[in-house]
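Structure tokens please, single chain.
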Amino acid sequence: MKFSALISVLFLCFVFVACASEEDASCVTGFDCADGYLCINSVCQPPVAVNDEDSQDDVENQDSSEPSDEKSDDNVSPEEDSDITEIPDDIVSCPNACSGFGECNLETGKCTCTGNHGGEDCSGCAEGYHLEAEGDDEDGNPDIRSCVVNLTCEPNPCNNNGCKEVGATVQCTCAAANHQGGRWCERCADGYMLNNSGVCKEDCSLKTCTPPQKCGIDYAINEANCNNCENEYYTGTDCKSCDIEHFCNGHATACVVEGGTEKCTCEAAYAGSTCNTCANGYFQSNGVCIKSCDANKCFKTRQCEAESVLGGTTTGIAVAYGTCNPTTGTCDCDPGWVTGNSEYGVGNSVDCTNLLRRVLETFNNVECAQCDQNNPPAEYAQTGCPTECPMTMGTIMFCDVFVGMPMGIGKCYYEPGTLRLYCKCESGYTMSGSKYYDENPIGACASESSE
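Here you go.
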């Protein structure tokens, strides 16, 4: 009997397991499980096989409606479930939840008020304080009606302005002459600003300026004034000066505004209403106007014409040794030649010579027409630079022998190296005495045959 019962139980377990795979395994009691299953730990589980007849009784007892000895979620103790908070039975609520202006003591049910509030529910104000009236921002926080201290007109809540006591506070009347504002006349009224001297002066919202001037803040004194200009390129207190770089291409000595038009005073090298071209006598090189060479002062040869002593006209030539530089606009001298000085200024005086000319034409301040005594040109490398022979005793010419008229039988030079003045006689003539002028001031070239 026992053996057949055991076989029956095992067969039933196999059937129950097959059926349970298609059922929901969660449960609260055994009624939520399929026949023959037990609700253990909220899960439907098959019964454990036993070896005697009492196992059938145990199975039947487990399936009954009587409560199971197994623990379920409904019977979890506070110690086993830490998420469950024990709520004391003696909690006492505070009146009006302390109105949001205090903390509630859950044991006594009384409020501890904060922020100068008072009363059982903190809806009132503490002694010596009052609740701000609607629209009267006494504490500088317009979003919250707060409890603020009671005030009287003493000592000076209105900053030396009109004061009137109204209930537990005061009403200030700011003096219009001082342009003060604010609840306590503590700042400047709208449209005014406090300068560095502590006086409220009108700001740019009230300041009136006459164009082209506009209002700006002078932060050195913290005051609004009309010293700014509508045009960012105008300057000056009257906005009558204009920016040279912008309007005159940076080539002017002054720029002024006349009748709304900018007028440039150009530098000597520039011309045009905006100083964008080169003036006469100047040319542009690498974006800059530079002075051009004067053709009357810088040349190799210069031709001239005059009336001839024989009638008609004759032509002469003035010679210099300069070439105009097209890049710099200056006169470049040939090697061995420099620009000297004359009674007319910088440069040499050069005659347009011709023996048949009735009138000699002279070019003054010619550049590159003087022989460089220290570094003479190639043609004078041996003799040194030529020069006019000086006259001594009024009539006798050094190097020349004929009284009162040069004969051209000798010429004067500056000796290379020493730069001493000496006389060199023409072929067929010889010098009597020393050739140096400073040693023989009355010497002369004489014919070698006369010796």
